[in-house]
Amino acid sequence: MPHALFLLCQQRRLVQQSEEEAQQQRGLLLLRLVRRFPRLVAAWPRPLATSNSTRIDHGLGAKAVMTRQAPAVQPEIQEDPRNPEMSAEEGEGEGHVSSVLAEATDEEIRSFEDSLRKVKSRAAYALQQNVMQNRTQIIKISKETEKLKTEMRTLRNLMAELKVNTTALRTSSSKSQEGFGGDGLASGIGPGSGAGMGMGMSKKDKRSSITDRSALWNSQMQALYKSVEGSQKFFPNSLGRHVLQNGGPWIELDNATYKSRRAMQIFLLNDHLLIASRKKRKNDGPDARGPATKLVADRCWPLLDIEVVDMAGTGDTTVGRSKLADAVMVRGVGQDTFIYRTERPESPDKNLLMLNIRKAVEELRRSLQSEMEANNKAKDTINYFASRDPGLLQNTELLETLSDVKDMLIEVGGKQHNLRWVESQMDELDIDISLQNLEPAVARVEKLRGLARGLKTNVVAQDFITFKVEERCGKLAELILHRLAVTHGLLSKTRENANWLARLGFEDRARETYLATRREMINTRSRLCIFQGDLHMYIWEISFVYFKIIRHTVSCFQACFPPVMMSVCVKWAKEMVEAFNEILARQLSSTQRGGDEWNQCISRAKEHAKFLSEVGLDFQTLVGKNLVGEEER
């Protein structure tokens, strides 16, 4: 009895020791889980059970011993003092794991760890997807930003141009009111009292002249031609040419003595400087009316060919200095110089004239530079398109048209694109053709053709796109035709190839290629039939090859091509039957007509001709037609 009690006590101690060791192992495993997955453990759902529970241990006998479970092992977690929020989450995750896995077995702990790993992998995958999506959005936003910057830059340039034009209109309007307002000889173009350009202009006309620069400039030029005799021979009226300033009365000085020579008047245009002499008008009759003087054009220079110098302070003597204080020197082509002095020293005409000349020269140089840049850009455009597509060099008319058009834009899907976008589409089409992606290539050709048809108002872009598309369409059609010739025996492939060629507009080429390939196939298969002395067997093989292939060809043609082309297929089948009749006549030429062998061969050929009745053709009467007719005669 004491020995049994001793064994029972020893067994209980061993059980308690094993339970404590298992509890310690679970605690260490929980500690590793908490340290490895702190955030995922904190997000795990809470259990309903408490940490302390009652467990019943069964001993060796029937007696049950009620024991209380020891508190769960709380693994220590070192909190990061730099991130209190992270430390709190880790502590909360530790308590959560302790409460969840307090009574879990080793297998449950491993399954819990596996589930945490799966959650971690899903979270990592979701994070990766979010990163890729955000990257795509960032790229899209950056492209939109670049486009917006370009549009804002264009808008800024347009606003600057509008400001310049508005200032020019305001200045032109004020000058027309001041210079052509009817001041007679001093201010107007005409020397008389009623010859000014702006004489009699109402307020309504002035308002309309501000809104319509072309009409204002045209009226100024017409008034200048009318007031200054011979001025039109120096510069004809052209688009954009207009008068900037009527410089008023001037006096031409001698270059050596600075003495007055004759009375002159200066007119400044946007691209020329006109010098007109004032001469007395001859009045023959006593009742002659009009001004006493007239203006005659004397000299005229393009502004870019001359240099206008202010002569103030250049005199050598006091007298010369006083004479030249209000004078200007015009140095023209060939080092010819002319000196002019204003008749009104107190008037700001000279300073205003010098200022307007400088502005006009700067504007001309700027426009000339922009024109040169545009020409260089046009040359670059020609070189770009010619280098990318040498076929354009043969179409010189289209190439010259492309060089004349600046910054051509086409609208695609509500967005404006230039011709470089068309080139990018052609590049993608070339890639599809080279990789033999036939369906995307055919779809892209249809898209570009539809785009070209929609550009009815832009003939140049329409011709350019059509030229590019048709050039590549021919290459694509040749590729599909070769594929059709190779796979003509497969119904699905033939239907697919014929559909692509029909969408490209090559239905006739597809039909001709298919029938020619089938004809060649019949000839090849018939040559494989070798005559070995049995004429009946040879005719049987030849007729079987001919009529069987004709039947399959007609059947495939009906399934792959439109019904309107069926007449061509029937004609081809008749030609094949006639070719068979030639072979039949040549083989039966040495056989007695009407004999058993002759009749047997004819009947066998007609029996094989019944194959065509399956596709709606009845050519039995054509088989051996010439032979039968000769026998009857």
Automatic annotation (TrEMBL):
This is Exocyst complex component EXO84. Pfam families: Exo84_C, PH_EXO84, VPS51_Exo84_N. Its main location: cytoplasm. Residues 420-620 form the Exocyst component Exo84 C-terminal domain. Component of the exocyst complex. Keywords: Coiled coil, Cytoplasmic vesicle, Exocytosis, Protein transport, Transport. Residues 102-165 form a coiled coil. It is found in: Cytoplasmic vesicle, Secretory vesicle. GO terms for biological process: exocytosis; Golgi to plasma membrane transport; protein transport. Residues 179-199 have a biased composition (Gly residues). Belongs to the EXO84 family. It comes from the Eukaryota. It comes from Ceratocystis fimbriata f. sp. platani. The keyword Transport applies. GO terms for cellular component: exocyst; transport vesicle. Involved in the secretory pathway as part of the exocyst complex which tethers secretory vesicles to the sites of exocytosis. Plays a role in both the assembly of the exocyst and the polarization of this complex to specific sites of the plasma membrane for exocytosis. Also involved in assembly of the spliceosome. Residues 69-98, 170-209 are annotated as: Disordered.
